[in-house]
Design brief:
- Helices cover about 80% and strands about 0% of the residues.
- It is an all-alpha fold.
- Helix 3 crosses helix 4 and helix 4 (about 90-120) packs antiparallel against helix 6.
- The longest helix has about 35 residues, at about 90-120.
Length: about 180
């Protein structure tokens, strides 16, 4: 049974991150003609396209994609409940879906930052994925660079953002655990 729950967790988490990447690409106004961006759009368009006809965007936020990400997170809870044979409360499914979505946002930002750091060592700007990673992360890193200058050519802004992100994730988890 552990292998099935692992598989369900992994597949749902990866797809939630793909859906959240679509939201992030739109917020960051990243290049949608990039092959990486095209993959994200093609992986989510069959559901997001029809949802956009029903759910409008608000203030630059693609609400249809956010609702879809939340639905996938809630569906993950339902699938796991069915596999382990637990009964589920619809209110707890919604709350758990929100927590999963929030956790996925933190994980996604963390892994995009790590991937950008690794690609910066290897590709030297000749990779289309690196171009998108720069477009996604630069709004997070550039404000930190104003306060933390490079030391001997080493950019510490990535470390500062990752530590701050981990702090926020722990803080949110502590607050949510006290509430629920």
């Amino acid at each position: 049974m552990n292998s099935v729950t692992f598989l369900i967790n992994t597949l749902f988490d990866l797809y939630i991150m793909v859906v959240l990447l679509r939201v992030w690409l739109q917020v960051a106004r990243a290049d949608f003609y990039n092959p990486f961006s095209q993959f994200i759009v093609k992986a989510t368009q069959p559901v997001v396209g029809p949802l956009r006809r029903v759910i409008p965007s608000l203030g630059g936020w693609d609400c249809a994609t956010i609702v879809f990400a939340f639905a996938v997170a809630a569906l993950k809870i339902v699938a796991l409940s069915l596999v382990i044979g637990a009964s589920f409360n619809p209110i707890m499914v919604l709350i758990s879906g929100l927590v999963i979505l929030l956790t996925a946002v933190f994980k996604l930002i963390f892994w995009v930052l790590i991937l950008r750091a690794i690609l910066s060592w290897i590709s030297r700007g000749h990779n289309p994925i690196e171009a998108v990673m720069i477009q996604l992360t630069e709004p997070l890193l550039s404000p930190v660079r104003r306060f933390v200058p490079p030391i001997g050519g080493l950019d510490l802004s990535m470390i500062v953002v990752i530590v701050g992100l981990q702090f926020l994730e722990i803080l949110v988890n502590d607050l949510l655990s006290k509430l629920f």
